[in-house]
Design goal:
Elements: H1 4-21, H2 23-33, E1 56-60, E2 63-66, E3 71-74, H3 89-99, H4 112-123, E4 127-131, H5 134-149, E5 153-157, E6 170-172, E7 178-180, H6 191-194, E8 195-198, H7 203-210, E9 215-220, H8 236-246, E10 250-254, H9 265-269, E11 276-279, E12 290-294, H10 296-306, H11 324-336, H12 340-363, E13 369-373, E14 376-380, H13 388-393, H14 397-408, E15 412-413, E16 420-422, H15 429-447
Parallel strand pairs: 3-15, 5-8, 5-9, 9-10, 10-11
Antiparallel strand pairs: 1-2, 2-3, 4-12, 6-7, 11-12, 13-14, 14-16
Helix pairs in contact: 1-14, 3-11, 4-11, 7-8, 12-15, 14-15
The structure holds 4'-deoxy-4'-aminopyridoxal-5'-phosphate.
Length: 449
């Protein structure tokens, strides 16, 4: 349906417009290129639309201002790290107070128990530990799972993403074997040795694979959120629980993104019964912090190791992990945001976004769809897929680049490598309607109607 030469012309026009209107970012990018690999402090930042990244100056609530002084509606929110909104006064206050009274001692601080209690209340799992990032939390849980089960392998969903965790950077190859995910450079060992991969929404494939008896843990998101949004079929997650239990496999739910579903993620919203829950990104209101929780049964088994002389101070933990600054930030965040009343504002905005985008798609009879989970919504260039491979088959880099750059040039930041929009209580209906208008104009320009 898309005329590729028209798309290329439109994209080139947007590239020129971006370069012309962002001279200061271009300058900073050139300067950064002299000392930073790829001209950026972190590889993913090379993947923003435009021939150089936008440099930002300030961010507050649902908006940020770039170095030219242009303001944007932020629908990326740090790819969930700032899902609460930027620069929350309560977090700023707590972080400032903690920074002036000591940040890191490797001793527990007075916020520690409050944070554990609050996480237990929200997710329904009784025992918690901290990590710096969701990647770390996933890595630690996988080590614990191998220890508890004595099994070597972990299972993940095809086209999952759980951070830079080596074993999870795997997909199913065309012949059904396990292969490295595209772009996963330098794996320590062949992922076929460490990892079993099954398609999402396929309980039979999961059952068959786990029956082999070599899998310690199944690590999964309750809905895939890193290849568009793929929702679970009715009853699928109950089947996953039954299958994992029957095969003695620990079920780890990664709620890092699906916290968009509510204050206790999908685990609480859908009454799931995982053995472990992993949580990261937004819980520190932007300050790096993550956590993982264990069920009563698993916690009892783990405490034997935690409290014994065998305690793992090598593969689990980290010098700065659970530091006083992070705990103060988590306490300030969880006591003032990501609460029922915050979702009650953010979710209707995501619903409005979804309705607006769906209307444009329907009006132009495009074979695209828009999916929503809580306050997160995303459009994708195919009908709703049931698994990651179907979603991955519809990835369209050029179309993606165009939609993102068109939006950016008109004051809206979408999440890179996705078409994801995340809503906080700081967004407004006018922000949503601006996006709907801009999205509709992009489609019209593309189709030449
Ligand atoms: N889990 C999920 C579901 C994620 O999407 C991500 C990152 N996008 C992570 C874990 C890792 O988070 P981090 O990069 O903060 O470690």
């Amino acid at each position: 349906m898309i005329d590729r030469s028209r798309l290329a012309d439109l994209l080139a026009g947007e590239e020129r417009r971006f370069a012309d209107t962002h001279p200061r970012s271009a300058e900073l990018s050139a300067e950064a290129s002299r000392s930073l690999l790829g001209g950026v402090p972190m590889p993913w930042m090379t993947r923003w639309p435009g021939s150089f990244p936008l440099f930002f100056e300030t961010a507050a609530g649902a908006r940020f201002t770039d170095v030219e002084g242009r303001e944007y509606v932020d629908l990326c929110l740090g790819d969930t790290g700032a899902m609460t909104g930027h620069a929350l006064p309560a977090v700023t206050e707590a972080v400032t107070a903690r920074a002036s009274t000591g940040i890191t001692t490797m001793l527990p601080s007075t916020d520690a128990a409050w944070v554990g209690t609050e996480l237990a209340r929200r997710f329904g799992l009784p025992q918690w530990q901290m990590a710096m990032t969701a990647t770390d939390a996933n890595r630690f849980v996988l080590r614990f799972a191998r220890k508890l089960t004595g099994r070597p392998r972990i299972a993940v969903m095809d086209w999952c993403y759980h951070g830079t965790v080596d074993e999870t950077l795997a997909i199913l190859g065309d012949d059904g074997t396990v292969v490295s995910r595209p772009g996963a450079m330098g794996p320590p060992v062949d992922v076929a040795v460490t990892t079993a991969v099954v398609p999402f929404n396929d309980p039979d494939a999961l059952d068959r694979r786990l029956a082999q008896g070599d899998v310690a843990a199944l690590l999964m998101e309750p809905a895939l959120t890193n290849i568009g949004i793929v929702l679970p079929d009715e009853g699928y997650l109950a089947q996953v629980r039954e299958i994992t239990r029957r095969h003695g496999v620990l079920w780890v739910i990664d709620e890092t993104h699906t916290l968009c579903a509510g204050p206790g993620g999908c685990t609480a919203a859908w009454a799931l019964e995982p053995d472990f829950v992993v949580m990261g990104k937004p819980i520190g209101g932007g300050v790096p912090a993550a956590a993982y929780g264990a069920s009563a049964e698993v916690a009892e088994r783990l405490n034997v190791h935690m409290l014994g002389t065998e305690i793992d101070v090598a593969g689990v933990g980290g010098t700065l992990t659970g530091n006083a600054l992070a705990l103060a930030a988590v306490r300030a965040t969880l006591s003032t945001t990501l609460r029922e009343e915050d979702y009650a504002v953010a979710i209707p905005l995501a619903e409005r976004f979804t309705a607006g985008v769906a209307d444009v798609i329907a009006r132009h009879d495009l074979p695209w769809h828009v999916q929503r989970l809580g306050c997160r919504a995303e459009y994708w260039f195919c009908p709703p897929p049931r698994n990651g491979a179907d979603a991955a088959a519809a990835v369209d880099e050029d179309l993606d680049a165009f939609m993102h750059l068109w939006a950016l040039n008109r004051g809206i930041l979408l999440t890179p490598f996705h078409n994801m929009a995340l809503f906080s209580p700081h967004h407004t209906e006018a922000d949503v309607d601006l996006h709907t208008q801009v999205f509709g104009d992009a489609v019209q320009a593309l189709l030449g109607d």
